[in-house]
Amino acid sequence: MSVNGSYVANLIEKLAPRHLAEDWDNVGWQVGDSRNQVTTVLVSLDPSPGALTKAEQLGAQLLVTHHPLFFRPLKHLRLDLPSEQLVAKFLRANIGVYSAHTNLDKASKGTSDVLAQKLGLINNEILAPDQGQKLYKLVSFVPSSHVENVRQALAAAGAGWIGNYSHCTFQVAGTGTFMPLEGTKPYIGHQGTMEYVDELRLETVVPEENLGKAVSRLLSAHPYEEVAYDIYPLAREGRSYGLGLVGELPQSMSLTEFAKTVKKVLGLPSVNVVGDENKQITRVAVCGGSGSSLIGRAKFVGADVLVTGDVKYHDALEAELIGLSVVDGGHDGTENPVVLMLANYLADKLNDRQVDVHTYIAPPVFRII
Fold it and tell me: What is the pTM of this model?
């Protein structure tokens, strides 16, 4: 059984909700028809000509990328410009492009988390937190005969999850009153008669991104024709999000040893290093891609070294000046691991749902020769 593109996109957005993306970013559907059936997905770091060729060879209907196809709105679609020729080729081939960029960078199991895992970091914290998960209290009034059905439906929609606990709700008994009027089809009672019903006030916490689904599931599971429910915004926040992570090595090592470790685990031909080669490294900050803007933040949180990419010469001088070591593994070198993670994630989720969709990984733009 195949699925459509929206189904695959929804799986990605469970891992990397779109609202996490930076304001300047462009995530989600880039080109294509989300209603098209998908039997083959190609995952790539970039929507490159090589990725397009690979997608055509595989007969893929969807290319999932980390970097977006568009960063700025198109004012025209000219076939004499290489970048816009590429857009036209995706359209002609009927291959959709979907991108998860800074939302995947900030996701709890996203770009920096994968990098931290590969380096063996422990006790990880967000390097530069910039937003907390918005939470809401969802309250409804349910006859006792259906309270378990409603509770299960809410949990399945992502409500009632606190840390590593699921199905977190609170209920208290009370009496609901109502009078069904002309034209109603009440589950309990009769038209024109005041009803007094033993009900349970059931309340739970819902993250903003799951609120719509939770309300929909509540309405489906609740037996009443007209469901009473309340939604309250909460002052407290849920999980924090932001760029990068900072953690600790299980055992300290010299900067030279650590740089060699980064080179080995990321499969890189070389890395650029800033700092004293004999400096002992224990606390490590990571940010996949371009993380030089976090040099000051990494020093502030006590990191001995920052692992990232795209470190320019003057950024390196700044790091040396403030006493922060840097290991630059390149933009693609520090982000490529998330491509494998994303491909495996999609394959696992599709397999769990017994969906016949094949997932592949595109070759990187840069190759070691």
Answer: 0.81
